[in-house]
């Protein structure tokens, strides 16, 4: 009977370990960029506004951008985030390749939008979109 009890105890212990490890894994914090961020780009002609959206996928951080002058969301490529520095790029039909380089500080960021084909940079600022629940 001791062998049977030892077997039950080992199975019980294994079940507890699996449950606890599942709970610990589900509490992982999302990437600090995940969510929606409203942005503004200041140019001599006008201020352009829109939203950057970041999500976590199987292959890492993914994102898209929508805004003034875009008829649809455009995918972000080459997203990197190291030491609070965000860098990524996207392409538009009208202006070609654009690069974002911004320093993220909590729920805000500031940096530049580089319109590569025109050799022009414009200041870029943004704030995380928060829900009314927060």
Detailed description of the structure:
- With 134 residues, this protein is an alpha+beta fold.
- 19% of the residues lie in helices and 52% in strands.
- The chain folds into two domains: 1-28; 35-128, Lipocalin (Beta Barrel).
- It starts with a helix and ends in a 6-residue tail after the last strand.
- The model is unreliable at 13-25 (pLDDT under 50).
Features:
134 residues; 9-stranded antiparallel beta sheet; single chain; alpha+beta; Lipocalin; globular; 2 domains
Strand % is over 45%
What sequence of helices (H) and strands (E) makes up the elements? HEEEEEEEEE
CATH superfamily of the largest domain: Quinohemoprotein amine dehydrogenase alpha subunit, domain 2
**Assigned CATH architecture of the largest domain:** Beta Barrel
Ends distance: 56 Å
- Looking across the biggest beta sheet, what order are the strands in? 4-3-2-1-9-8-7-6-5
Q: Mind describing the biggest β-sheet?
A: 9 strands, antiparallel
Helical stretch tally: 1
Q: Helix- and strand-based class?
A: alpha+beta
Taking all Cα atoms into account, the compactness measure Rg is 23 Å
**What's the pLDDT, averaged over the residues?**
83
Helix content, binned percent: 10-25%
Number of domains: 2
Shape, please? globular
Instruction: Fill in the CATH topology of the largest domain.
Output: Lipocalin
Number of strands: 9
Classified by CATH, the class of the largest domain is Mainly Beta
Unreliable segments of 5+ consecutive residues: 13-25
